[in-house]
Every structure is written in structure tokens, then in C-alpha cells.
């Protein structure tokens, strides 16, 4: 029996997962989602969503393909050019990449805002506290004094000085109708989604077809590399990015491995 066969299904700490396991990233995301549910951060429905994403990631080869890396670089440039960038945080994002989102926010001088489909005051506060435990100074989303037009339900609630006023918004793992509603508000929308055919990446200015646990750290690395770039260089990166090509290349990798 190999060491891989002895990995327990009931891992208490992610350090117990061997880093050289062939499905390490998948095991890591599963564990973080399960922990998020136990902490009241992630809704049970988030586990089902993560399962769907895991299937697409497997077809992508569980790696950041070149088109995704290009999208992540373009996303970093957009965030650095923004007047008021905001990173949206839902339950899965908070469970999977809390510290990484804090690092990205610091690298591009963006706000963090909690926005939930299954919204309760307790969950919003739990996620905000979770982000603070991972280094966040300020977390928006608790005020919820504005609404996204043409969108019903609790996830329409946003902070007036946060997502509502933002010019560039990163919305990872987002529902398609909310992505469409944000687009109609003329915001530059960056979406992270493992399914290139879903509505969210289809309407995004920058669709990133990648696993969020790879995408966010990669965006931060690009942002730090571009920290001293002038506006002309950043706009060149933004203008050269081809969203349709990025989606086509992601679909091709999923369909036939090319």
C-alpha cells in the first residue's frame, strides 16, 4: 500500500495532506471547504459547487494553462489601474483563499467586501472575522446600504462605498446573474471560474479559467511584478488581452487536452 492510499478522509489539519500527493490541490480544497462549513463560513451548497469545479480542474490538468496566466496578468493590470478596486468574498472564497485574497488586496490597494447568496448577519460577521485573522485590516459588506439593480435576493446587498461604487470588481466563483448585473452597472469585471461556458466568465471583461487557489496567488505575483510599471505599460497589457481567445483555449484544453 502506498502512502497515498493511507491519506485519511478525516484530515484535521491540511498539513497532514502530503504535498506530493497526485491530487494534492483537490484534497486541499475539499478540506478547506469542509473546515469552512464547520466554522459557519461556507454554506453546504458550497461543497456541491466545489465538486463541480473540481471536475473541470481535472480536465484542465490541474494546472494554470497559458491563457489563464495571461488573464491573471491582465487582471492584475486592471486592478492596478483602477480608481476603486474591490475584491468580492463569498463563503467558498473565504474558506479557500482568505490569506491570499488579503495579499492580493494589499498588492493592488483594493477593498475586501463580503457578499453572500445565503446571507445571514452571523455568516457575514464570521467571514469578516476570518479575513481579519488572516491579516485584513478592514472588511466591507457588513453595512449593506446599497443594492445591485435588477437583482433580487440577499446577494443584491452591497456597501455603497464598496462594490456599488467600484470601477473594477473581482468576483470569484460567482453566479451568472449577479455577474451580468454587475456588468450592466458598467463595471470592469474579473471572474475566476473553472467552467469557461458558464455565464460568469462569458460576460466578464477578464475571464480567468483556473482554480482559485492557483489564480489568486498568481495575480498577486503579477501585481507585484507590475508595481513599478507606468500607466502606458499597464494599459498595453489590458488592451492586448483577448478574452475570447482565452475562453476558446480553456474550452479546447477541457474538450481535447490541447
Q: For the largest sheet, list the strands in their spatial order.
A: 2-1-5-6-7
Major β-sheet annotation: 5 strands, parallel
Counted up, domains total 1
Reported by name, the CATH topology is Rossmann fold
CATH superfamily: Phosphopantoate/pantothenate synthetase
Count of individual beta strands = 7
Word description of this protein:
Belongs to the archaeal phosphopantothenate synthetase family. Catalyzes the condensation of (R)-4-phosphopantoate and beta-alanine to 4'-phosphopantothenate in the CoA biosynthesis pathway. It comes from Natrialba taiwanensis DSM 12281. Keywords: ATP-binding, Coenzyme A biosynthesis, Ligase, Nucleotide-binding. It is an enzyme of class 6 (ligase). By secondary structure, the chain is α/β, with parallel strands linked by helices. The chain has one domain (66-256): Rossmann fold (3-Layer(aba) Sandwich), CATH 3.40.50. The protein has eleven helices and seven strands. The protein has helices spanning 24-39, 44-59, 66-81, 91-96, 98-108, 121-133, 176-184, 199-203, 212-225, 231-240, 243-256, and strands spanning 85-89, 111-114, 146-147, 157-158, 168-172, 188-192, 206-208. Strands 2-1-5-6-7 form a five-stranded parallel β-sheet, sandwiched between helices. The longest helix is centred in the first third of the chain and has 16 residues, at 24-39. Mean pLDDT is 88; it is low at 1-9.
Amino acid at each position: 500500500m502506498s502512502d497515498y492510499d493511507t491519506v485519511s478522509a478525516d484530515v484535521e489539519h491540511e498539513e497532514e495532506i502530503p504535498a506530493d500527493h497526485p491530487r494534492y490541490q483537490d484534497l486541499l480544497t475539499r478540506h478547506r471547504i469542509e473546515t469552512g462549513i464547520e466554522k459557519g463560513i461556507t454554506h453546504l451548497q458550497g461543497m456541491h459547487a466545489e465538486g463541480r469545479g473540481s471536475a473541470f480542474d481535472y480536465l484542465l490538468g490541474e494546472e494554470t494553462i497559458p491563457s489563464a496566466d495571461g488573464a491573471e496578468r491582465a487582471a492584475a493590470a486592471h486592478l492596478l489601474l483602477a480608481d476603486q478596486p474591490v475584491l468580492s468574498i463569498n463563503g467558498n472564497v473565504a474558506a479557500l483563499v482568505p490569506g491570499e485574497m488579503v495579499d492580493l488586496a494589499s498588492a493592488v490597494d483594493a477593498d475586501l467586501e463580503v457578499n453572500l447568496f445565503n446571507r445571514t448577519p452571523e455568516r457575514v460577521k464570521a467571514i469578516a472575522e476570518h479575513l481579519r485573522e488572516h491579516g485584513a485590516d478592514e472588511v466591507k459588506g457588513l453595512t449593506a446600504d446599497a443594492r445591485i439593480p435588477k437583482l433580487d435576493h440577499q446577494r443584491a446587498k452591497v456597501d455603497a462605498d464598496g462594490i456599488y461604487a467600484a470601477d473594477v470588481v473581482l468576483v470569484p466563483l460567482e453566479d451568472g446573474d449577479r455577474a451580468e448585473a454587475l456588468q450592466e452597472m458598467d463595471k470592469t469585471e474579473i471572474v475566476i471560474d473553472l467552467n469557461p461556458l458558464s455565464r460568469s466568465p462569458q460576460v466578464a471583461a477578464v475571464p480567468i479559467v483556473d482554480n482559485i487557489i492557483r489564480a489568486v496567488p498568481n495575480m498577486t505575483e503579477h501585481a507585484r511584478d507590475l508595481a513599478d510599471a507606468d500607466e502606458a505599460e499597464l494599459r498595453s497589457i489590458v488592451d492586448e488581452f483577448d478574452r475570447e481567445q482565452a475562453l476558446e483555449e480553456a474550452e479546447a484544453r477541457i474538450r481535447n487536452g490541447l
